[in-house]
Design goal:
Number of helices: 3
Strand order of the largest sheet: 1-2-5-4-3
Shape: rod-shaped
Strand content: 15-25%
Distance between the termini: 91 Å
Order of helices and strands: HHEEEEEH
Largest sheet: 5 strands, antiparallel
Radius of gyration: 28 Å
Helix content: 40-55%
Number of strands: 5
Structural class: alpha+beta
Amino acid sequence: MIAHESRPDLAQLGDQLEAAAQRSLGSSRRRRVARTGLGVVILTVIAAGTAVATGMFSPRQVALGLPDGTYIFGGTHPTCALDSDGFTYHCTLATPPIETTDFRGAKELIAIDQKIAGGCVGQDEAGLSWDCYIGDEAVKHEILVQDMLGDPALEPGKG
């Protein structure tokens, strides 16, 4: 009779062990999925930061970054071309900036994908010609400080 009474206990114990193993495997899989998701987010952030730091953007992206970075470029329809030096973007505005001032030497920011990516230096009084730099090149030209690269730029800056 003792052997008969222990049988349901062993079956119950087996069921409990099986349930515990399934829970453990399930949580392990969820942890793996969570770690993978976190890894993808980290790599995306690193890649975006690297792109900003190294200046890996097309002239079209830079042109679109002017009005996204600074409000005075709104409605100016910029076009940019990459210089043979590989890091200077020569940008021309179809219409002058909305402010009237002498833009020679003026420094303005560029935002790409809602992140500060670099900046431009005004080349003429009317503000139609700008030399722009991305990432570390913008820092070298003293348009911005290194810590600003990659900072959020949710709307164009003013001034």
